[in-house]
Amino acid sequence: MARYLIWRGLSVIPTLTGITILVFLVTYFIPGDPARMLAGTEAPPEVVAGLRHQWGLDRPIHVRYGFWMANIARGNLGESYFSHQTVLQLVRRAFPVTFELAMLSLVVALLIAVPSGILSAVRPGSWFDLGATAAGFVGLSVPGFWLGIMLIYLFGVELRWLPAGGFAPLSGGLAQNLRSMLLPAIALGTFASTQLMRYLRAGMLDVLNADYIRTARAKGLAAAMVLVRHAMRNALIPFMTVLGVQMGYLLGGTVITESVFALPGMGRLVLNAILNRDYQVATGIILLIAASFVLLNLAVDLLYPVLDPRVRLGRSTGWE
């Protein structure tokens, strides 16, 4: 098991290295000049050239990448060209909003996906199974931003039950905070639940048809015990993989949702940075989101030895 953990940990290093190169190249080739935007369209060329030299924008791409990586190694993700705040300062304010939205969305997704996936697998071909499957396909087809707009129109404009946008911090009260986050959490969580429900249903169907499940039933074990103790644990292995991916998407895929609901999170922050050609902020935040995605999936992989004894014995990787 120790070799498995070491191997999985080391495998993250080349992945993160590739992410830094990709993130830097993507932001490097974004059209626009931050020096020109800050100096203004009427500024003389020598002023713009001075700003570009000051920020190192006139250096070759490999030199800029080297300086950027050196700063990252020291824990410095850069500084905004316009506000002169560090990326970490900006993230410190925006991340709690995005994290809360992601966690609430995950709760919504699990509340929908887990009971629906289990009931669909226990009674395949039933009206509930067919309805849940159809709802899952519809959920995959509906864009999250469109669902968010419809929720705003229904509950924020027509019924006036919930605020149509904006963020209420926890310091102003838990009730107000949850009211401001409920609609965006439903919009994100509904889309995420469709994938989770499909994988849980498929995993449960495979497990419920296994020989050891029939043996457990033949021994006279209660149906609930067979379902929870024997079927659920093995069906969770592929489900946990998809859950890790969805958690990464919820952390990094909030750009449009935060913009629709006017939430001051990381998604909206990186979108504004890209629109303003604030490359330091954009690269820093995108790198943090991508690294979080990779580390979340690593954490899920490290849970496999707990869920699957074969991984604990090294049979899945051939390391022992």
Automatic annotation (TrEMBL):
Localization per Swiss-Prot or TrEMBL: Cell membrane
GO molecular function annotations of the record: dipeptide transmembrane transporter activity
ABC transmembrane type-1 domain ranges (all copies): 95-304
InterPro entries, per database record: BPD_transp_1_N, MetI-like, MetI-like_sf
Pfam annotation, one family: BPD_transp_1
UniProtKB keywords: Cell membrane, Membrane, Transmembrane, Transmembrane helix, Transport
Membrane topology, record value: Multi-pass membrane protein
Keyword Membrane: yes
TM spans (from-to): 12-30, 101-122, 134-155, 181-200, 235-261, 281-307
One cellular component (GO) term of this entry: plasma membrane
Family the entry assigns: Belongs to the binding-protein-dependent transport system permease family.
Name assigned to this protein: ABC transporter permease
Source organism of this protein record: Candidatus Segetimicrobium genomatis
